[in-house]
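re: ur question from yesterday

yeah so i grabbed the chain u mentioned. its 358 aa long if i counted rite. heres the sequnce exactly as i have it in my notes:
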Amino acid sequence: MKSWSWVLLILLTILIKWASWYPDWVEKNYSQGIYPLISKIQRFLFGWIPFSVGDLFYAFLILLIIYKTISFVKAIIKRRFTRKYFVGGLQQVIFILLFMYVFFNLLWGLNYNRRGIAHQLKLDVKQYTLADLDTLTTVIQQRVNYYAQFVTEAQRDSFNKKRILFRSANEAYKELGKKYSFLKYKVRSVKPSIYSYLGNYLGFQGYYNPFSGEGQVNTTIPHVLEPFVTTHEIAHQLGYAKENEANFVGFLACRSYESNAFRYSVYFDMYNYAVTEVGRRDTMLALAFKQKRHPQLVKDVEEYRAFFKRYKNVLQDIIMSGYGEFLKANNQPAGKRSYNEVVAWLIAYYKKFGVDAL
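ran it thru and got these structure tokens back, copy pasting raw so excuse formatting
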């Protein structure tokens, strides 16, 4: 920790904070400028490796924290906890936190402050009425009921081979890229999470590692969720950091792909978001929607709830509460409800392009 490294980190921290106040600058110079090159280099370096390098990096960090904690406790027990020891340890902690903050933002995190997909598609995303929500939910329910009858068990079981799942997600983005060039996805790097089973207890379905550029998918979740979760993580790789935007880009990718399984997966998720928002405003209307669900949809919703109920625990609540605060700190004031905000993007989308676009 040389003095010049402190100066460099502090200067970069200030510049990152300054840049975050100017979304137009971030959009032009970072998100559509240097970031696409950074992400492609990351995926080129680590995408070919069959396991998640980013997961190993997280394991190293956890082991480092455990080691430092044990050393701290030993110092107290052996009465080596002096003022000099405390100051030195505090300097190390601050240095590491600054280092992580700077590289997190330079490698990806600045995308939290971009103008984003609404700006690129010129969507007017704003507060919506119950009538708007009713229209959206009606259309989404028609779609999900339609595709529910065509998704076979063989299609679902094919996702047991993750290369099929990930290749299909890549093809979905190829189709989407034909319509929107800025959504082209090159150099694939999506992998099963090493911590998938642990993730069930911690409450995550997938995540993006900004330090390695890899998208990780929890491959133990119900098959109905996997296609949409995969396209959601790829959206993060393309620079859509906010969860509502990643949900919307994932919707566009699945919607563009001629696959019953992918379309059913995304409509399944979008339906759950939409009907939840209906329930917040009109419980009787939400009940009316639920009574019109296809039997397969009812079955999948029950499986979905049973799966997460099986792993529900106190630690998960703590982790998710902390994650909600992380989202708020990164320009998503709704916290965990940011995922549901995709509803506003869908409404703005159909108002511009018509309900058939859904």
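noticed a couple things. Residues 3-113 form one domain. also The chain has a mean pLDDT of 92.
anyway ttyl
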